[in-house]
Automatic annotation (TrEMBL):
Bias kind Basic and acidic residues: ranges: 73-83
Lineage: Bacteria, Bacillati, Actinomycetota, Actinomycetes, Kitasatosporales
Species whose genome carries this gene: Streptomyces xantholiticus
Name under which the protein is recorded: Uncharacterized protein
Region (Disordered): 1-20, 63-83
Length: 83
């Protein structure tokens, strides 16, 4: 089971050249990190409408990631004492 949750709003976003390249934006539900993936190649050409969808998905993931990371208790390390 993955700790990442993908944004379903990008399910229909594909490369404009028709080669099947996909983009995925996911949030790590444990740590709040945001993952941007371009699947099947190293680049993707998006229509302006799809680029706006990706930007909105990144903004949603950033908000969700911030909420997750701010709700985690702060990790405190013990102060070092001089030897």
């Amino acid at each position: 089971m993955s700790a990442f949750a993908s944004d379903a709003a990008l399910d229909d976003v594909r490369d404009t050249t028709g080669n099947g390249t996909e983009v995925d934006v996911a949030t790590n539900l444990l740590a709040g990190a945001v993952q941007l993936s371009i699947l099947w190649t190293q680049e993707i050409l998006l229509s302006p409408e799809d680029a706006a969808k990706v930007a909105a998905a990144l903004a949603r993931a950033a908000d969700q990631g911030s909420q997750i990371s701010s709700s985690k208790p702060a990790e405190h390390s013990e102060p070092r004492t001089p030897a």
